[in-house]
Amino acid sequence: MFFAVIQYWVMIKNSFVTFVQDQLHELGVSPRRMFGGYGLYHRGVFFGIVSGDQLYFKTNDQNRPDYLESGMSPFQPSEKQTLSSYYEVPAEVIEDGEQLIEWAHKAIAAQEAAKRKTTKKRAPRGIGSEPDSD
Question: How is the chain split among helix, strand and coil, in percent rounded to 5?
């Protein structure tokens, strides 16, 4: 209980996270503290990052053009690191709750597709292989 109270207090201090959570209330988004910012989760799927007053969503080949057309950049947590699969969400999208939910759905789908792709690559041992002969 104590941890939950502290976490809630920290989130209240970051009004941007609270605003984003309010905009995405229909999705039941859960923000979690991570690396000086927040990760956004929907039913256990990590699909967004809040860093300061900027929101980034997971992208892939299907939804990345929306971000590029708006002139958005990938998430760069430091000078030496760029996460090219997370792009900044345009301010006009953040302010429009319906449009933000639409973009969030696409980000969630992008993350789920990436998980499926990774899972296919890591087939469990023994599946598809022939038994050892002695």
Answer: 45, 25, 30
